[in-house]
Design goal:
The chain is of the alpha/beta class. Helix content is 47%, strand content 14%. The protein has one domain: Diaminopimelate Epimerase, Chain A, domain 1, CATH 3.10.310. It has a 4-stranded mixed beta sheet with strand order 3-2-1-4, sandwiched between helices. Helix 3 (18-32) runs parallel beside helix 7 (124-142) and helix 6 (105-120) runs antiparallel to helix 7.
Amino acid sequence: MRLLRHLFAPSARTLFPAGCLEEITRAIATAEQRHRGEICFAVEASLPAGALLSGLAPATRARQVFGELGVWDTELNSGVLVYLLLADHHIEIVADRGYRGKVDDAQWRQACDTVAAGLREGQPGAGILRAVEMISAHMERHFPQGGDGRDEDELPNRPHLL
């Protein structure tokens, strides 16, 4: 059954057309001006057959993407990946080690639930925008903009369609 879902998964570009991607890009850039955290959004329509046959779990794939996109590679270990695997209807947030002991799983789950609500309502972009604001609030609390004038954007703000 999972193989069929992946074979017939909706296109990420259908759910997130160019205008929507631009809006998400602007929202991430604007949010990141308020803190020293880095938000990365990636969406994957489906997995290759080999990954499915080997039983690759969506959470494992999200951690792979976290590494592949270099979300772990920020000065303050303040990167967060929001990952969607459309075929499995799976939303995962992978946060770097800088959040350990600061933001618990239930708080990350709230952001995932916000994305899921947007998808259910047929407004996937709106769900992502609300989640960006939720995640940004955690970043503002734990990685506030410093008084040292440093405001380096360490990761691209543009969503990744994998």
